[in-house]
Prior knowledge:
This protein has 222 residues and is an alpha/beta fold. The chain has helices spanning 5-12, 29-37, 56-63, 75-85, 124-137, 167-173, 208-214; strands spanning 45-49, 67-72, 92-96, 109-115, 138-149, 156-157, 160-161, 178-189, 195-205. The strands form 2 sheets. The chain has a 7-stranded mixed β-sheet, sandwiched between helices. Strands 6-7 form a two-stranded antiparallel ribbon.
Amino acid sequence: xxxxxxHWDRIYGRGTSDDKSSWFQQHPDRSLAMIASTGVGAxxxxxxxxxxxxxxxxxxxxxxDYRLWLLDVSAVALSTARERLGAKADHVRFVHADVTxxxxxxxxxxxxxxxxVFHFLTEPSDRQRYxxxxxxxxxxxGYLLLxxxxxxxxxxxxxxxxxxxxxxxxxxxxxxxxxxxxVESEQHRTPxxxxxxxxxxxxxxxxxxxxxxxxxxxPLPA
Length: 222
């Protein structure tokens, strides 16, 4: 269902108010801080996977001359995001696609950001495609920043079941090509007044030499 464009168009089409979405953050402070901690330059290439109506893109445009990509499976979300950005939308590349099947360039991104997409991938084959996609698209030495529901987080969201992770289980999926750099927790307050436990993992993409050594690691978990 995560790739069901109709489902997500309906979710984003319920109204123009952001408080319709439980995951919405008015201020993506943790993502911004963890991106800043990587030390990538103000002209770095950053992709926000499943960015939807997140204010992250606008916030990044306000602080640097980043080369930004915004990918989402929902055309409604992308259209609304483009409209809200106004003239600044010219500085963003919009990609309407399912991330597990998107045609993304290899070794393009300094930072891959995903808040609340990976945990929707309940099928092992979808997780495998996602991991391959992310590791291919991030430059050696670049970063992957993923935020998912934590082990004590919700078991479903937007009418769909989700996976929940701790740092070890999430990082294990990317161990063939990335190492865990930082872990943070967040108690997200939804627009409805509920609290959701999120886990943020920052991973560093291995360079070619270290990637060769990692090739002997066990296969990805299912």
